[in-house]
Write a structure and sequence with these properties.
By secondary structure, this protein is mostly helical. It is built from 5 helices and 3 strands, in the order αααβαββα. A 3-stranded mixed β-sheet has the order 1-3-2.
Length: 249
């Protein structure tokens, strides 16, 4: 059997009341879940940054090994050149050998300075990585603590929300699906306030003035009206009873 206007309004108002009850449960649950999500996102970013630092340290280590190998080869060249120098008897050849050794020595000094700077940078990188690892370990512990401490409350909230949803499904029985869809659409678009009672001459949701003809229809309880500005459903707070209609007639 199709519901009358009073019954339809009563069900919509009951639906709004139940949604209002559930609002705090949804907000608390969403807040707890959002906090954990934010922490995990931050953790992910920190782990990505740490992985990049480790990759750069690996590259620096490879470069260090390469340059250190080159330095050892050049040091051996210097040692061999000095050995050969001892056997040189001609002055011109001796001067040429000394010049070669000096050139190698200067090149080795420059390479040693370069390697020293690299080692210092690597030490700083290692310290930075160790610091990041400690921060990540601390954040992981915080995430685990948050999940553990909130698990019970989240389970309670899910139960309360399911109870709210069950009550809503019961109230929605008898209402036209199109009307329920309209209610939900307005509810989601208008900060959870889909149907409101009118007691004066304006919509209580947006304070937009209702046309006089609309107020007349609301007072007579002829229809569920819609605010022309915010699209919320409107009803007169005190709908006329059938006896009132007969007296008006």
């Amino acid at each position: 059997m199709e519901l009358g206007l009073r019954e339809t309004v009563a069900k919509l108002v009951a639906l709004q009341t139940i949604d209002d009850e559930g609002r705090s449960f949804h907000e608390e649950r969403d807040g707890l879940q959002a906090k954990i999500v934010r922490l995990k996102e931050l953790l992910g970013l920190m782990e990505e940054a740490l992985a990049e630092k480790r990759m750069k340290l690996d590259e620096a280590s490879r470069w260090y090994r390469e340059k250190d190998g080159e330095l050892k080869v050049d040091q051996e060249k210097v040692a061999k050149a000095k050995t050969r120098l001892q056997a040189v008897t001609k002055n011109k050849e001796y001067m040429a050998m000394q010049k070669e050794i000096e050139s190698l020595r200067k090149a080795n000094l420059a390479r040693e300075e370069e390697i020293l700077k690299l080692v210092q940078a690597m030490d700083e990188f290692k310290a930075s990585i160790a610091s990041e690892e400690a921060k990540i370990a601390e954040l992981k512990s915080e995430v685990e603590t948050e999940e553990a401490s909130n698990a019970t409350r989240l389970e309670e909230l899910e139960g309360l929300i399911e109870g709210i949803n069950s009550r809503k499904r019961e109230v929605e029985k008898g209402l036209k699906p199109a009307l329920v869809s309209r209610y939900r659409r307005i509810f989601n678009a208008r900060d959870g306030r889909a149907i409101l009672p009118v007691t004066g001459s304006s919509c209580p949701g947006c304070n937009y003035a209702c046309p006089p003809q609309q107020i007349v229809r609301l007072r007579k309880g002829l229809t569920i009206e819609t605010c022309r500005y915010c699209s919320r459903m409107l009803y007169w707070l005190e709908l006329p009873t059938p006896d009132d209609d007969e007296e008006d007639a």
